[in-house]
Amino acid sequence: MRSDEWTDGPMRTKEQEVSAREDGKAWKLLENTLQASIQEQRRSRRWGIFFKSLTFVYLIGAFLLFSPLGSLDNSAGVNEPHTAVIELRGTIADLEEASADNLITSLRRAFEDTNTRGVVLRINSGGGSPVQSGYVYDEIKRLRGKYPDIRVYAVIADIGASGAYYIAAAADEIYADKASLVGSIGVTAAGFGFVETLDKLGVERRTYAAGEHKTFLDPFQPEKPEERAFWQTVLNDTHQQFISQVKAGRGERLKDHPDLFSGLVWSGEQALQLGLVDGLASTSTVARDIIGAEETVDFTHRESPLARFTRQLGTSIGSAIATHLGMSSGMPVLR
């Protein structure tokens, strides 16, 4: 064996090792590239599935919200004489269950049903917005004129006060239980004052507004006597509107009592003596003995859970914005 074979052998081995290392690096780089590509494809596929699912849920939600399934109709399929019952429950306010939109929708459907023999507005509410109450009051009056053969009866359960009584006054007759709470014919607007608290904490209130009295309901600024007097005129005017509508609805049935419109609330028995109600009876009693149609059908307009969730979400966002802008305090309430 020649000596150059001994020298050439190791040199070839080193070249092979270098080549092998380079090939290994290349394969490693290729492997990493392929793995990154696979991971990116998986990530893209996951996001694609997510957005497709989100779109599907949105479409289903939109369908339920804007289709007839978006509200619950309990009156469908009733083809015999009946008493239409509409629930007025909770706070009377826009976007609430007892909003004017919901109540008016229920009333119209009840009156338009050819098998309705009478309408019972079953009330369990302490009041709310004078505007919403006024809308419902006016609509009851209009429907009574349009359908003179269908009478409206308000039946008060636990409480029918303030804005709820405002609406009840539009009915032909009002009934309650002997222990029901009735009346509270008054207006309130309440808030808090934090001026001294801010001073003690060393907090400076910075408000920027155009208009001399724009911030007169701001709880973080001192109350001015002239603004307080002005706000009282607004409440007094709203109170007089309330009184006028009650008198128009109840007429001579109201007794002359010095505290009748003072904001006091009365038991059902006391309300009967004052002419605030016409008798003591339940919904079933009115349907059976007064209307003469014992079968009752619920015409209350109710939102689906999805529609209610969507509305409440929007209300929460709107309330947060209103609070941030300082527009959410001190509105008049019939309560």
From TrEMBL:
CDD domains: S49_Sppa_N_C (cd07023). One of its GO terms (molecular function) is serine-type peptidase activity. PANTHER family: PEPTIDASE S49 (PTHR42987), PROTEINASE (PTHR42987:SF8). Pfam families: Peptidase_S49 (PF01343). It comes from marine sediment metagenome. This is Peptidase S49 domain-containing protein. Keywords: Hydrolase, Membrane, Protease, Serine protease, Transmembrane, Transmembrane helix. The keyword Aminoacyl-tRNA synthetase does not apply. The chain crosses the membrane at residues 49-69. GO terms for biological process: proteolysis. Belongs to the peptidase S49 family. Residues 150-287 form the Peptidase S49 domain. InterPro entries: ClpP/crotonase-like_dom_sf, Pept_S49_SppA, Peptidase_S49, S49_SppA_C. The keyword Electron transport does not apply. Gene3D superfamilies: 2-enoyl-CoA Hydratase, Chain A, domain 1 (3.90.226.10), 6.20.330.10.
